[in-house]
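Re: beginner question about structure tokens

> Can someone show what the tokenized structure looks like for a real chain? I only ever see the sequence side.

Sure, here's an example I had lying around. Input first:
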Amino acid sequence: RDWKNDFGDTMFQMSYVLVIALASIGCAPLRQALRWRHKNRVESAPLWMLVWTGVAGALTLILLIVGIVFGFSANDDKNSGRHAIGVHALEVWGPYVVAA
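And the corresponding structure tokens:
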């Protein structure tokens, strides 16, 4: 491929890699918490673990609510005029909510 003349596609691919890198950095404390819990099944969780889990859970819930209310979705069909609002939001977001 000629990546020099396809700047838009190149930027899209690089932004995808950047998002994956940022997500891995952002999820590092969660990974540490899961490893700690695997080694210490009986002990009480330390404060840093509780705080990080609360922040991550709150952020996930806020983004889910914003997505449902305002209709932001990767599954939207922009050509049909249907958006993820109301009952259609259950079709779009239902599998994600059930999976969580």
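Each token stands for a local structural state, so reading them left to right follows the chain. The mean pLDDT is 77.
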